[in-house]
Design a protein that fits this description.
With 433 residues, this protein is an alpha+beta fold. The chain is 59% helix and 17% strand. The two termini are 61 Å apart.
Length: 433
């Protein structure tokens, strides 16, 4: 059911109820007033007739009584008249059918069943009862008047209901027009049209709602423009970072490769072999260059991760050999702080399909942190084992431990993450599948 139809039905229902109450109360008041007038008219007519015929009854002047009866019958609405001396009819006239029936006086209009209001008046002189007069007054005029009044009231009510329906329809059109504009504007807003505005008419609640809607769309449009500007700025900053890393890649890799190339030439020159001290220095230069090159590669990998362009090269790798290589790279750093690095090799080679470079980076960062946050003369141990035979897709585990401070419980990663820290044993387990 539409809002317009609800408005029309609501107004029409209220109007119908009010009209029903008004028509009923008006007709009821009209009926009561007519009944009072009828009773007063009948009582007055009967009393005057009794007064007029009193002397004729006392003298038993029948001719005068007949004359008085004919005279009263000339009055409008009087259907019959009768004069009685106790139980004897002295004179009567009018409708024979009404005269033939027994008299039953009426006191209220609702008691009338034959459209005749029957009334009487006593003939009394000096406190002595000499007779009475009976008169029948027609109620056709009152009944017809009530019928016309009822029809007129119903006609007026019908016209008023039609006008109410017309006005409520016009009101519904006026209200739903603004609601329709709000609905259409909301649909356009949902479709992404933030520049649409509603034309405000008047100062009522619907106008206030339109003003609030226009403010909301203006704010959304401003927020969208701010987001677009922030996105463009972020893209420019990211592009600048990528350009910087690309230049750094070229500017750093070229001299770094030169240093590593000359170091390898010095170490491998058969014509001028290096002394032990020189060979150690050249080896330190070569190892430091490799570490710096790894840092450059890590920065480039970070840029690739943020730009979702990180690529992987999967191959079959011996995990034990990778661990051995990582420990050899970090041995010098551990020796500087007298930290002992140790590993437990697996009973048989364990091969997994993985990106060798990424695995090396993960293990190197893991052990590097163990060394960094360890204390002097501490230790770092690493062990690996697998369940099943080589090639079995079941998981393998890599456990490591150190003698340094562990991560507080409040900073532990969630249990569902790849690495979970055991506070009590200072141990981390990593599962590969």
């Amino acid at each position: 059911m539409s809002f317009r139809l609800k408005t029309m039905l609501g107004i029409a229902s209220i109007e119908a109820i009010l009209l029903t109450i008004l028509v009923w109360s008006g007709l009821n008041f009209l009926r009561q007033s007519n009944e009072e007038q009828l009773i007063e008219h009948a009582s007055t007519t009967a009393t005057l007739f009794a007064t007029t015929t009193k002397n004729a009854v006392l003298s038993t002047d029948l001719a005068s009584l007949e004359s008085f009866v004919q005279e009263i019958l000339r009055n409008p609405g009087v259907l019959y008249a009768r004069v009685m001396d106790n139980e004897v009819v002295l004179a009567e006239g009018g409708d024979p059918e009404l005269l033939s029936r027994s008299f039953a006086g009426d006191t209220k209009l609702e008691d009338v069943r034959d459209l005749v209001f029957d009334t009487h008046a006593e003939i009394v002189e000096s406190g002595i009862h000499f007779g009475r007069v009976e008169v029948g007054i027609s109620t056709d005029r009152i009944t017809e008047g009530m019928k016309k009044a009822r029809n007129r009231a119903m006609s007026i009510a019908a016209i008023e209901m039609a006008l109410t329906a017309l006005f409520s329809f016009a009101l519904g059109l006026y209200l739903t027009r603004q609601l329709k504009e709000l609905r259409d504007a909301s649909r356009k807003l949902a479709d992404g049209s933030l520049e649409h505005r509603i034309q405000v008419r008047g100062r009522d609640e619907l106008a206030q709602t339109s003003i609030a809607f226009n403010k909301m769309t203006a704010k959304l449009q401003a927020n969208e423009q701010a987001l677009i500007l922030a996105r463009d700025e972020a893209w420019q900053a990211n592009q600048a970072k990528s350009d910087f890393l690309a230049r750094m890649n070229h500017e750093l890799r070229t001299p770094m490769n030169t240093i590593m190339g000359f170091s390898q030439l010095l170490a491998a020159d058969p014509d001028e072999p290096l002394t032990p001290d020189q060979a150690m220095s050249v080896d330190e230069i070569l190892q430091a260059s490799k570490r710096l090159l790894d840092l450059i590669n890590s920065l480039l990998d970070l840029d690739q991760i943020t730009s979702t362009n990180l690529s992987f090269t999967l191959e079959r790798v011996d995990v034990g050999q990778v661990i051995k290589d990582v420990l050899n790279k970090l041995q010098t750093k551990a020796t500087e702080r007298h930290i002992k690095l140790s590993s437990v090799p697996p009973p048989q080679p364990i091969l997994i399909t993985v990106d060798r470079k990424r695995l090396t980076q993960v293990l190197q960062e893991l052990i590097n942190n163990a060394i960094r946050y360890n204390h002097d003369h501490g230790s770092v141990s690493l062990a690996i084992w697998g369940r099943g035979v080589i090639g079995n897709p079941r998981p393998i585990k890599n456990d490591w431990g150190n003698s340094g401070d562990s991560i507080p419980i409040s900073q532990h990663p969630p249990p569902s993450s790849p690495a979970a820290y055991n506070h009590g044993q200072r141990q981390t387990k990593i599962n590969w599948f």
